[in-house]
Amino acid sequence: MIRLKSSWQTPNICWQCQWRLSNQRRSFTQRALRKDGLAPKLASRLPRRALHDTRRTSQAVLASSVEPSIDPTLLHPGRHKLSTRQHLEQWNKTFGGPDDLELSAFEKHPAHGDIQNTMAKLSFGSKADEDVEGDEQIRDDENDDDELVTIGLFLSPGDVVELSQPGREPVLAVFVQQIELTSQFYSVNGRWTLSRQGRISFAVPGAINPALLEPLVPYMPTATEGVQPKHSVQVPRDIGAPVQELLSELTEESERIYRTNAPVLDSAYSTLADATRTRMMTLSQIAKTLLGKGDPTWSPSPSALLAVRKALKHNEFRFRTDANTQRLTNIFAIRPKVDVEMVETVHEWVREYREHEAALTSTYDKKQPTRSAGARYIHLFVNKAQRLIAESRQSRGSKLGFVGPDRSHESSTQDSPGIKTTFWGDDFTTADRQIISFLQAWVLMDQFANMPNLHAACASILQAIGCYDLVQSPVNPLSAMGRSVGQMLLQEIGVTTPFENRVIYNENLMLPTVRLSRNLELLNTKAEITRRNPDFKDAMADMRRDWGATTVYCIDSLGAHEIDDGVSIERVHGKPSEYWLHVHVANPTAFFSKTHVLSGLAAHMTETIYTPERSWPMLPSWASQNYFSLGSNRAVITFSARVDDSGNTLESKIQHGIIRKVVSITPEELAIYLDEHSPGEAKRLVVGGGHVPVDKKSRPLPKLAPEQLQNLRDLYAAARSLWKGRKAAGAVRLYSRDKADVSVYQKPDAGGLTWMPPSVERVRRVVGDPIIELRGDKPHDNAGYFGETIDTSNIVEEMMLLACRTAGSWCAERGIPVMFRGTVESPTAPLSLKEFREKVLYPELEKNGHLTMLTAQNYLGALGRSIAHSSPIPHHVLGAKAYIKVTSPLRRFSDMIAHWQIEAALRYEARTGQKLDARALADAPRPILPFSHRQMQESIITLSPRERVISKANKESNAFWAVQAFMRAFYYQEAPLPDTFTVRIQRTDPIHGSKGWFEGYRMSVILASSADGDYEVGDRWEAKISHIDSFKSQIHAVPIRLISREGPA
Fold first, then answer.
1. Which spans of this chain does the record mark as coiled coil (predicted)?
2. CA-to-CA distance for 206 and 193, rounded, in angstroms?
3. How large is the angle between the packed helices 430-443 and 337-361, nearest 10 degrees?
4. Mean pLDDT over residues 723-732, rounded?
5. Higher pLDDT, residue 327 or 917
6. Which of 347, 650, 988, 1005 is deepest in the core (most CB within 10 A)?
């Protein structure tokens, strides 16, 4: 028997007895400590791994220790008839449970009661269901938008999803519950994990019975802040086993399908890709092509879809997806073979170049290694880039992530502002063009996201050029060779303009700025044929009303190219407090069906895309302007409502017609007609010339007859009544504080910019810079977060909302499936909308007379998230029971769909003399409507994410040009800026910087942490700009002092 020496042992005491004597001494000490409550808490904090020592200890060391470190009975389990498992179970019952601190995030955990805890801390290896939340704790800026998402955003308990992270194999998990913005899942690995539903790229609805998930809920965290799946308490294995088994079966079946069809799945790209054009396919279409064996009746199972997804994810660059919409659409963009070959070729060249450079460092006294062809191409490009960068810096300086304005003609800037000319330089070789295309894919299109090997190749090129060693981000030094520096390279070698807006190269926008898809190319060809021989025929010709002498007012800016809508008004005879309001809308859908080539183009674009420098119309300009844009003798669809002075709709109708008398006025002219004058001028910032002569081209004020002036006054009165009624229904009017009004001019007499696509054939230099005008708030615009009243600028808005509410109610009454838009409350919100109003909103208004910004933000959250659905749902933000967008059919495809549905219903009612209803739709032997309920749902799933992408692009483009203006004013003094600004805090974040806006300028800003204390939402701080990140379109500021803080009166 092994014996140990110690100060208290005798030769006749064995190791086991020594351990027990020692344990008695320690137990006495522990009892004394526990009296103070210290030892148990200390013990509970010890991670389980800390109880395991992996160091190797010699017998000599053991012999010199005072006491054994393990229970000797574990070496002789037979003495006490306990197995190792039984010993571990006993230890687990005593020490393995979570402490009070850990359980604070698990309010439903059984350990809060008298139930004996059987939980232990678990530690796993690195899996794809680990730390899925990560930085997602930071709310994405895109979530601040009030743009819609579809009803499919919400997962249901029992839906099986795929959790994935870069560099890890995805794992299956089942959705259990939602806690505020965070979704909770239980994975096939037997652990719960957290994510946002927007991050889930694939789901199998209803795969697991929700009843099986109920036992798991008590072991799920009820709070998400600071809780990590890897190191926290987990669901007991026996309770999670039934769910885990189902997930395992699904995983194993998908793996079996993959192994069986590996040759086909691994060669999917060569089977599906086109040589030169992007190809769009859904996951089901891909599965049928690869696994269906030509059987048109074959339908892929969830396991088959998972197997196909695995194959596609292994070729992530070749099969592009939009991560934000993948779960809803399941659409893959298959890159053309020419693009893939280019990337693979240049990637190999970079590898050869790095190997050659490495060989040079190890051959000091030997013969220099010969460069391969690929290494030589990179070497030559590096030398050319160094020369071109030196040339560029003679006329344009460079800072963090951007190239400065042109200084080669500084003396003539005021005489000839704007972009003056372009000139051409050296030709790029074939190899240069491939390298440039490789860098463009990285910088402009962001095609290499989550692909570190390709990112490293691009960074290697920048490092080899050696001209950007001093470029370092003050926020993130590790981004020294990132995409922002790559953009500088493309600008300085004359490929992209020095003021290039990267947003328009987003592949998900599907603009001509990126390679055309095969479908779009065919559509453009057919549209050109239609332009030469238009085949438009009015399907509503026999149902049109002639509006004759009725004056229709089209209120829009002078530069508007597409006039979608106009309004007219008539008093109700004998009822001075009532009006008939008519919203006349362009009517292209009466002239072509959903299968027409223009419909295909509109569906592809989804919406007209507006950026400050240019626009991309949904419908070709020749069609909109020559045939459908509002004007005299043009066809319209009219949404009419009879309203009273309380804003109540008493009667409504929809009819087609032709307008004859049109008056066009601008919003500014409308304000003058109605004697509404601004109390002050808005803040204005102009760079590139100091003035914008385009503004001087205002026309003389049109002369209106007295009855027309009275019509405008009546429209204003009716708009106030409509707002009064909506406000009574709970509507809110929001002020956009962080979106400045920006205009861009190529020259003083030319608004917008001519598109200059990247020059990959030869070097292009641009002389001069665009003029940028930024318009901020007027002095009274900072009065509050919500608007309580309206002015003349809101007249058109109220009329358009009336038309959309009228159309929504009309379709809802008839059971017509359209793209209804509304709001839904979060199922996990602490207070319902009604409770929030009663317990928070009304008491604060009664006490203070206004809302704090924090309360206003919480109220917006209580109002719910905007969604789209094929059935009517209330829109709490707008105060509408049913709402569909119908006023912009020249600019929004969903409006066209609504018009097609309404027109088909009107033709049915005119033909049968009966009102259409759900029963008639269901019993009809042939479809009455162009879109069935199922087709409408599919359209919503496709259109909603596209609308969100476009909305985000419009916002980001606006921010880009606004930051460009501030950058040129701040770094190059092209316009005066105040030394300090007043920043209003919108969202607090002590780690990444709190978000706010510059009062007066409507510019978003990131404010660094203050040494004087934490920020609170609604604070007003004096701050000064520290630096501007042009690549990310961010302004960073540092605080100086607190000006004011919101709080109870």
1. none
2. 19
3. 100
4. 92
5. 917
6. 1005
Q: Does position 730 have pLDDT exceeding 80, yes or no?
A: yes
Given a cut of 50, whether residue 38 has pLDDT beyond it is no
Say which residues have a Cβ less than 8 Å from residue 935's Cβ, sequence separation at least 6.
Answer: none
Structure tokens at 938: 């599919």
Smallest CA-to-CA distance from 985 within 1012, 970, 1004, 960 is with 1004
The pLDDT, as a whole number, for residue 830 is 78
- Does residue 229 contact residue 185 with C-beta atoms inside 8 Å? no
pLDDT tens, residue by residue, 988-1038:
888 888 999 998 888 899 999 887 778 999 999 999 999 999 999 999 999
Backbone angles phi, psi at 296, to 5 degrees: -70, -20
Over the stretch 138-194, which tens digit does the pLDDT of each residue have? 333 334 333 334 445 568 899 999 988 767 788 999 999 887 667 889 999 888 888
The answer to whether residues 60 and 3 touch, using CB atoms and an 8 Å cutoff, is no
Per the CB < 8 A criterion, the answer to whether 715 and 569 are in contact is: yes
Question: pLDDT band at 5, cuts 50/70/90?
Answer: very low
Q: Burial level of 321, CB count in 10 A (0-12/13-18/19+)?
A: buried
Pairing mode, strands 1003-1007 and 1034-1044 = parallel
- In the structure encoding, which two tokens stand for residue 526, read together? 């057919």
Q: 191-200, 659-668, 915-924, 930-939: lowest mean pLDDT where?
A: 191-200
149 within 8 A of 948, measured Cβ to Cβ: yes
At which residue do the structure tokens 């957290």 appear? 194
DSSP 596-661: SHHHHHHHHH-B-EEETTEEE-SS-HHHIIIIISS-TTEEEEEEEEEE-TT--EEEEEEEEEEE-E
The helix or strand, by DSSP H or E, that contains position 1028, with its residue range, turns out to be strand 1020-1029
| Structure token pair of residue 939 | 């359209």
Assigned token pair, 570: 């008539």
Least confident of 625-634, 664-673, 697-706, 850-859: 697-706
Averaged pLDDT for residues 503-508: 91
Q: Which residue has the higher pLDDT, 151 or 252?
A: 252
Token pair of 78 as six digits: 């037979």
Cα separations in angstroms, 119 against 110, 213, 235, 309, 862? 10, 18, 8, 36, 36
Q: Which residues of 702-729 are buried (b: 16+ CB within 10 A; e: fewer)?
A: eebeeebeebbeebbebbbbbbbbbbee
- pTM flag (> 0.90): no
Do 747 and 974 meet the contact criterion of CB atoms below 8 Å apart? no
CA distance 652 to 602: 29
CA dist 841 and 858 (Å) reads 10
CB atoms within 10 A of CB 675: 8
Cite the DSSP H helix spans in 884-932.
Answer: 893-912, 918-923
φ/ψ region of 138 (left if φ > 0, alpha if ψ in -120 to 50, else beta) reads: beta
> What secondary structure does DSSP assign to 57-110, as a single string?
--HHHHHHSSS-SS-GGGT-GGGTT--HHHHHHHHHHHH-S--HHHHTT-TT-G
* CA–CA distance, 397 with 769 (Å, rounded to integer): 13
Per the DSSP assignment, residues forming a β-bridge with 767 are: 421
Which DSSP state fits 928? S
**Bridge pairing between strands 331-334 and 279-282:** antiparallel
Torsions phi, psi for 679 (to 5 deg): -70, -10
CA 640/CA 568 separation, integer angstroms: 10
Among 127, 134, 207, smallest CA distance to 163 is for 127
